[in-house]
Design goal:
cytoskeleton; cytoplasm; two-stranded antiparallel ribbon; 87 residues; alpha+beta; cell projection; 13% helix; CFAP300; single chain; Cilia- and flagella-associated protein 300
């Protein structure tokens, strides 16, 4: 397992897990058609490449493409709010 330190250096985390837990996640969407709305030309191109944008930072997290804008930036025209997420 690798992690990035505060100084920006990548280091290997040399700690073995003492315990691992998992839980079931309910799933109501069983079709890949759910992702078709990403291919409308605003988030991804016809080739499937995710469209890039100028870097913005949200809570020290770099947002450099429209997919991240959709998921993280509430001020973005692409933001997927709670009402749209329920679709």
């Amino acid at each position: 397992l690798e992690m990035v330190s505060e100084s920006g250096q990548t280091t290997i985390l040399g700690v073995k897990a003492k315990r691992v837990t998992s839980s079931s996640v309910p799933c109501t969407v069983l079709s890949m058609a759910f992702f078709d709305k990403l291919m409308d030309g605003q988030i991804a191109a016809e080739s499937g490449d995710i469209k890039k944008c100028f870097d913005e930072f949200q809570d020290e997290f770099a947002i450099s493409d429209n997919l991240r804008q959709m998921l993280l930036n509430e001020d973005s025209e692409f933001y997927l709010n709670a009402m749209r997420r329920s679709e």
